[in-house]
Amino acid sequence: MYLLDSNILIYSLLPEQQKLRNFLRQKQPVCSIVSKIEVLGYHKLTDGEKAALIKLFANIQVLPLTSEIGDTAIILRQTKKMSLGDSIIAATALIHQAKLLTVNTKDFEWIENLIFSNPIN
Q1: Which regions of the chain are under pLDDT 50?
Q2: Which end of the chain is more exposed for a tag (fewer CB within 10 A), N or C?
Q3: Residues sharing a CB contact under 8 Å with residue 64, sequence separation 6 or more, in sequence order
Q4: For residue 65, what is the domain's CATH number?
Q5: Range of the domain at 98
Q6: What's the N-to-C CA distance of the chain in angstroms?
Q7: With contact defined as beta carbons under 8 Å apart, do 98 and 83 qualify?
Q8: Residue 87 — left, alpha, or beta (φ > 0 → left; ψ -120 to 50 → alpha)?
Q9: Cα-flanking dihedrals φ and ψ of residue 2, to 5°?
Q10: How many domains does the chain have?
């Protein structure tokens, strides 16, 4: 299973990222509800971007926030300073044993047992 970080969702909309879109179509990724909130909640989305994102979310499974994910996110935040969103996304990947796809790999390097990669490189 592949879990998409918010930045991968955003990058997938860029015209020059056809290779990324092809990769994602083949892998049938999922994302955290936090990524959906972060991406669709951005206040400067254009109507076209919003429509493209809504279409994208209609085609991928959005994983809910559970107590187990919340507890894991708390442990991560107690271990090292990180944003609430990143802690929930990392915890979601850990709980679901998913590979996290992110551009910001440095944000997650310290987390034991988290498998991640940057599909844009």
Answers
A1: none
A2: C
A3: 33
A4: 3.40.50.1010
A5: 2-117
A6: 20
A7: no
A8: alpha
A9: -115, 125
A10: 1
